[in-house]
Amino acid sequence: MKATILGSGTSTGVPRLGGEHGIDWGLCDPGEPKNRRTRVAILLESDAGSRILVDTPTDLRSQLLANDTNRIDAVFWTHDHADHCHGIDDLRPLRYGRAGPIPGFAAAETVRRLRQRFGYVFAGQHGYPTIVSLDNLDTLRLCEGFRIGHVQMPHGPAQSTGYRFECDGKSVSYATDLSEITKDMIDLFHGSDVLIVDCLRREPHPTHAHLAMSLELAEACRAKSAVLTHLDKSMDYATLTREVPENVQVAYDGMVIEA
C-alpha cells in the first residue's frame, strides 16, 4: 500500500499570507522546498490500483495535478472545517467518465454539515449530475479493497474522524486535527505500520496536537513508524527532522510512503 501526502500544512499553509513583507515563513527556511506546505490531505493506493482520497482541501486541484492524479475511487472526510472540505468542487472533473457518483463517506455530523453547505455535490443541480454519493461511516467495513476502521477524536470543541486503512497486509492510520488522546484512538491505531499524525507546533494548542502529544500517541499505540503533518510556520523541516526519533518522519507535500 502507498500513501501520498498531498498537503502537510496548517489551515493557512506555509508560507502564510501577511507579515512585514506580505509573506510570512515564520521559522521555516524559505530556501527549503519541503517547507512550502499546502493544506492537509492524503491519497492511498492499493497494489491493485484502487485510490482513496482523504479530505478535499482548498488546494486540492493543484495537489492532484502535482501528483499526476486524475482518478479516485472513493473519498473520506475527517470533518467539515474549511481547510479540509472547501476544495470539494475539484472533485467534479473526477466524476467525468464515471458510470455513477464517486462514493463518499464521513461521520454522521460531518455528513449533515457537508450536505447543508454543498447540496449540489450530493444531489446534482440544473442538469449537472451528482458528483459524490455521501454515506454515513457507521456500517462501513470495506471500501475498494481497503478494510476501514474509524474513531471520533476530540478537536477542541468539535470532533474529527481518525481512520485506519488496511490493505495488502499493511495498515496506514490517519489522525489529523486532534487535541486529546483517548483509549479508543490508541485501540484503533495500535500496531499501525504507519501513523500519519497531527503536529501543529511545539507549544500546546487548544484544538491541535503539539509535538509532545504527537510523539506520545505514536508511542502509546506502538506504531511502527510515524509521519508528522498539519505543520505550521514554526516547524522548519530540517530542524524538526533532527529532533524526532529515528522511526518518525516529517511530512512534506508530495511525500510518498510505502507501507
TrEMBL record:
Superkingdom per UniProt: Bacteria
Membrane-spanning intervals of the chain: none
The UniProt entry, under CDD domains, shows: metallo-hydrolase-like_MBL-fold
Metallo-beta-lactamase domain location is 38-215
List the residue ranges forming a coiled coil, or say none: none
Q: Which InterPro entries match?
A: Metallo-B-lactamas, RibonucZ/Hydroxyglut_hydro
Q: Give one Pfam family, short name only.
A: Lactamase_B_2
Fetch the PANTHER family from UniProt.
Answer: HYDROLASE C777.06C-RELATED, HYDROLASE C777.06C-RELATED-RELATED
The protein in question is named: Phosphoribosyl 1,2-cyclic phosphodiesterase
Which species? Novosphingobium endophyticum
Q: What does the organism's lineage look like at the top?
A: Bacteria, Pseudomonadati, Pseudomonadota, Alphaproteobacteria, Sphingomonadales
